[in-house]
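Thread: "does anyone have the structure for this chain?"

Original post by V.I.:
We have the sequence but no experimental structure in hand. Need at least a predicted one for the grant figures.
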Amino acid sequence: MSALPRQPAIFLPHGGGPWPFVEMGLDRTEVADLTGYLQSIARLPPPRAVVVISAHWEAPAPTVMTAAKPPLYFDYYGFPEASYRLTWPAPGAPDVAARVLDALAAAGIPGGTDAARGFDHGTFVPLKLIWPGAEIPTIQLSLVEGLDPARHLAIGRALAPLRDEGVLLLGSGMTFHNLRAFRDPRSPAVSETFDAWLRDAATDAPAARDQRLTGWAAAPAARLSHPREEHLIPLMVIAGAAGADRGRVAWNGTFMGLRLSAYQYG
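Reply from O.Q.:
Generated one for you, tokens below.
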């Protein structure tokens, strides 16, 4: 593994439902912009495996999927029938799942396993754009119920050594996620306010970054942007895995008129 290139840690916005693959009446320029960013990730040095921390899975302890051939978990509702026939047959990575558990245990964090869990849309939707051939072994790691930011930063720190083993750590969420406000004409300004704060915090020097992200709920427009923070917490895991790497804004644009960002460390 020592010859494998060190992988970055990335947080990306996964959009809404099956947005790239079915007609949803979205702005075509916005769709093309986010699609282009996600596809650009495939130009990075290829990982030997991917660990995805998706906003759409929470468990009592950090839990890894262990299936050798994970199914898709269509955890969205009310979309065209074609969106429930999508495929993305990436292999699982039971060996990487075991390595994740070992890394967590070494940091004093007990973890769990789930042999039945499939890829939710926080994984298969963006990764189907990045690697349409589904050739990279992939697993998911759950969030932990309670969504404590400091706890998730610690989980990320525990996982940081995997980056030197050719494993890409990828957080999948959204920097704005207030479903009741998506069509509210006041929401673009709210998203701009919070995203500006988050861009500054997430790219700050590592110690300041972690401190600011831990206290994210006190940021301007924080709770208007995230009434419940499950779509933001994957960023905490990625920031924890960043270690001494200072982050950069890998993409900044709008989706449904709302300001969103992606971050890359390393």
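V.I.: this helps a lot. The chain has a mean pLDDT of 97.
O.Q.: and The radius of gyration is 17 Å.
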